[in-house]
# Entry
Amino acid sequence: MKAVKWLAALVLGGIFLYAAWIGVALFRLPPVAELADRRMNLTIQVKDWQGKLHPFVVGPRNAWWTPEESIPTALKWAVIVAEDANFYRHEGIDVPAIRDAIRYDLEKKRFARGASTITQQAAKNLFLSREKTVTRKLEEIYLAKRMEQELTKGRILELYLNIVELGPMVYGIGHGARYYFNKPASTLTVRECSFLTAMLPGPQKVYNPYRHLDRVLKRSDMILGQLRQQGVLTEAEYRQALAEKPDIGGMQRKVDRSFTGKVKKFFKNLFGFFR
# Structure
């Protein structure tokens, strides 16, 4: 009986210490109220595809920054229907989605589904690491709730779209629009909006257009279908967007240059080996 009591005391003590540690971690999180100022500039760290960190400016000082009024409506809705259908209804977290994700993760016995809202993703990208831990998830939820209290939905969406990863050191839809289509984000077509949105879950691997263009286009078609179902697009607009083939000439030139560069490097290293 004593052993049971000691075990219970240890468990309760562990829970208390962990709760206290979580409390301290949440208390030390940065303030979010300053994000409401659209003139604000914040420097964060982002990773390239080799895992190296680089400073990245969030705000008007960023040459690729795209303010809310210049973001196409089609792009905003494409991201919402694809990433967070309840964006305008929840207050930072989507409880039913989290419940489903927990059930799914328990079945898979791993962190397979996150159920993060756009607000949570913005909070993570702005302030947190990418590690998948319970503590980091709690910090993300806490920050998301605070952001919903301090910021408008439009501001949250603006921040999110200007810091999302869309390629190798390509962050934000302003840079993404230039990188893939050589145009400002404000002039993106509906198809181009759905194309960029389709990449969001994994621009480095799963939805990398250089390696899996067919996969990106298939998801882009699905997003267009969702926009039609939600009434964002008319039938004519949907058909027109579906028929449009994204101009990927610039992308192919990048692939060609990348391939040529790799070939040159290979032979340079090869000949250097035989010297």
Q: What stands out?
A: DSSP finds eleven helices and four strands in the chain. The longest helix spans residues 2-27. The longest strand covers residues 42-47. Residues 80 and 87 are 7 Å apart (CA to CA).
